[in-house]
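Weekly sync, protein design subgroup
Attendees: M.S., D.O., the rotation student, P.L. (late)

Item 1: inverse folding check
M.S. brought a backbone from last month's batch and wanted to see whether the design step gives back something sensible before we order anything. D.O. pointed out we never logged the input encoding, so this time it goes straight into the notes. Structure tokens as presented (76 positions):
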């Protein structure tokens, strides 16, 4: 599911983008996970917002794939 953060869809169609986020968060609430990884900076922001909105910001780490790889290789 794409909310449109790669372009301006999320700005032009804010309500629809938030509905996509709500759907994503409903899926995430059904599973126990520690981390969400994305390669898109917009998705990163959207997932951070979503985790806060469902009260899981302290429980779920949201990271960009480059940061995850840097951590895996011990590069900080």
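Designed sequence read out in the meeting:
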């Amino acid at each position: 599911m794409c909310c449109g953060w790669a372009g301006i869809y999320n700005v032009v169609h804010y309500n629809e983008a938030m509905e996509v986020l709500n759907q994503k968060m409903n899926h995430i609430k059904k599973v126990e996970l520690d981390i969400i990884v994305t390669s898109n900076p917009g998705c990163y922001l959207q997932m951070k917002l979503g985790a806060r909105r469902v009260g899981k910001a302290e429980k779920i780490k949201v990271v960009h794939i480059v940061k995850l790889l840097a951590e895996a290789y011990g590069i900080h």
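Discussion: The mean pLDDT is 90. The first strand starts at residue 35 and ends at 38.
Action: P.L. to compare against the previous round before Friday.
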